[in-house]
């Protein structure tokens, strides 16, 4: 994909297709954010006139729906023979990997008000099917899955900025030192932790929270 400052060459006649439009939209959202996507901007990235997009999609919403469908199709399913709770854990890990790999999907999922599409419906059906096999009531099943998805969305949202901490070997030591400088009488609990200060990568935090949410199901099993 050419940079913003690079001269563009117009796509040869007949080469524009839905797959190219969707892939370019994904790249644009990943790079510049969902707000940057417009049919005019997308057409500019493709070096075509905006009206050329309407040959393949009726409007911007149709392009966004196709982007979401394409990205969800890249979802990596775990082994179906895995035990139910572990299967749920692996699905949430797959969601987290997908969201962090494709910020476009994360932004679309958070802001989407569209009806569920076929790909998302199939994923949701399998999730609730596994929960049904655990013999939990409907309210708990819906509440648990909503909690899991929101947890994954939250972890993926902060990942781009917090991931830099993982690459800084001194990050947690600086945090420990900052806490140690706090007055012990005013912050006794934080001060006490500095004697044996734990460190976490972003994946460690994700796994810790995921295990905590799924713990009741594990104990039930």
UniProtKB/TrEMBL annotation:
GO terms for molecular function: DNA-binding transcription factor activity; transcription cis-regulatory region binding. Coiled coil: none annotated. Residues 38-57 bind DNA. InterPro entries: Homeodomain-like_sf (IPR009057), HTH-type_TetR-like_transc_reg (IPR050109), HTH_TetR (IPR001647), Repressor_TetR_C (IPR004111), Tet_transcr_reg_TetR-rel_C_sf (IPR036271). Gene3D superfamilies: Tetracycline Repressor, domain 2. It comes from the Bacteria. Residues 15-75 form the HTH tetR-type domain. Keywords: DNA-binding, Transcription, Transcription regulation. The keyword Nucleotide-binding does not apply. GO terms for biological process: negative regulation of DNA-templated transcription. It holds the Pfam family TetR_N. The keyword Transcription applies. This is TetR/AcrR family transcriptional regulator. It comes from Nocardia panacis. The lineage of its organism: Bacteria, Bacillati, Actinomycetota, Actinomycetes, Mycobacteriales.
